[in-house]
Amino acid sequence: MSLADRVRHPAFLERVMSAEEAAALIPAGANVGMSGFTGAGHPKAVPQALAAHAKAEHAVGKPYKINLWTGASTAPELDGALAAANALGQRLPFNTDPICRNKINTGEIDFIDMHLSHVAQHAWFGFLGPLHVAVIEVLGVTADGLLIPAAAVGNNKTWLEIADKVILEVNTKPSAKMEGMHDIYYGTAIPPRRVPINMTHADDRIGQPYLRVDPAKVVAVVETHKGDRDNVFATPDENSNKIASYIIDFLAHEMKMGRLPKEMLPIQSGVGNVANAVLAGLLHSPFENLLGFTEVLQDGMLDLLRAGKMSKASATAISLSRSALQDFEDNIDFYRERIILRPQEISNHPELVRRLGIIAMNSMIEADIYGNINSTHLMGTSMMNGIGGSGDFARNGYLSFFVTPSVAKNGAISCIVPMVSHVDHTEHDTQIIVTEQGLADLRGLSPRQRAQVIIDHCAHPDFRPMLQDYFDRAQHSSGGLHTPHLLNEALSWHQRFVETGSMRAPA
């Protein structure tokens, strides 16, 4: 399908130019909002051209950096290319690219880690400064000048509204049949003019299928023909399958006890192999007519839809493996009736998460014995990826699970520690912790009760005696017994790892 077939509004065809010409329109120091969420829907050509432009500027002694805002993570040809070209001064709100991560942790890039539900509204409020340029991937432009969104909506609605200038990348590779899959809600407003969002079921459509843009702001249209990043999901290993089985058994028990309705509540699942293992487990569970209300639709949720176990899935992006993407494209008429793609300010909205009663499942780096969760930092100081949307769902979900294997680095690191080295989710937002060792239901427990349950059910046997010893001595020697700690030892496990490469106690 040609660009003329995808761009059906003549005024936009008049602004077609190369990626290099479009990149030259972005000045040094600009705040730039780009599309993209978890490797989907990101611009493919302009970032590459922008990286080349930055290198050329640097070569003649001119400083050139931009401040980059997105929906979440993107792909090597965006984050990686710009980071490698030393073209990023500031980055928000989430990153998974290793080059960018390294420069964040060496202090070369200022990274702002944010709850994903906060990004659009903070930009809209003006808290982040002006947005000078938006670079947005779309699948086409209608005859009326409306934009057909791509595989990720993210913050695109807000970027298009508040940016001074807009560059559109029209990607002709994804199927044009995705048109109609999106639900773009334009009913949000700035306080005090906000009104309730009229959604009471996860599969409600409350918006329109298209993004809007002021044509006068569109300064460039660039054609691309390239797919999104291939996500590779490993076959669930034994630990992932154990974690999944604990969660599914727990949900069945909650239903039996009358604490969950028989029709089940909508499911949110974080990104990664453990999350996909849980979804694979649901495929063979007794639960029927499931609903998804999440950020990213991955392979496992596609499997549930195809099998008829899930009736509808709502997300802000579709991020699939190569084989799952082929299935999606081959059966797009089927999926278009069952998938709803929304702005992330809706997919992650705390009001909706609480109203709909979402069951939230997210990964973590470590938990401490009292239930505080570290989702972002390695050894307290090095950023991994960011908090993402886990906080949006953890605090507001009907049930909130945090999952991880009990050890990392071939057993050198315990993922259950006396005190987390960085707190992203406090004990007040943590209901259930699951490792391959077991499940700790923390609801209705005091801190000391939580500690014993976490040690007994979630800690690896190699570290359980050390944790028990710490907790016992803390109860005997701590200045206060509500949350007993030995302050001179609380972070000693992390320090020992930094010094020796292992958290294990010396022989």
Question: Explain this structure to me?
Answer:
With 507 residues, this protein is of the alpha/beta class. It contains 19 helices and 25 strands. The strands form 7 sheets. Strands 1, 2, 3, 4, 5, 6, 7 and 8 form an 8-stranded mixed sheet that branches. α5 packs across α6 (98-105), α9 (238-256) crosses α10 (273-283) and α15 (350-356) packs across α16 (390-396). The longest helix is centred in the middle third of the chain and has 19 residues, at 238-256. The radius of gyration is 23 Å and the shape is globular. The N and C termini lie far apart (67 Å).
Q: Average pLDDT across residues?
A: 96
Q: Give the C-alpha Rg.
A: 23 Å
Number of helices: 19
Ends apart, CA distance between termini: 67 Å
Largest sheet: 8 strands, mixed
Number of strands: 25
The proportion of residues in beta strands is 15-25%
- Helical residues, percent: 25-40%
In short:
This protein is an alpha/beta fold. Helices cover 33% and strands 19% of the residues. Strands 1, 2, 3, 4, 5, 6, 7 and 8 form an eight-stranded mixed sheet that branches. A five-stranded mixed sheet has the order 9-15-20-24-25. Strands 10-12-14 form a three-stranded parallel sheet.
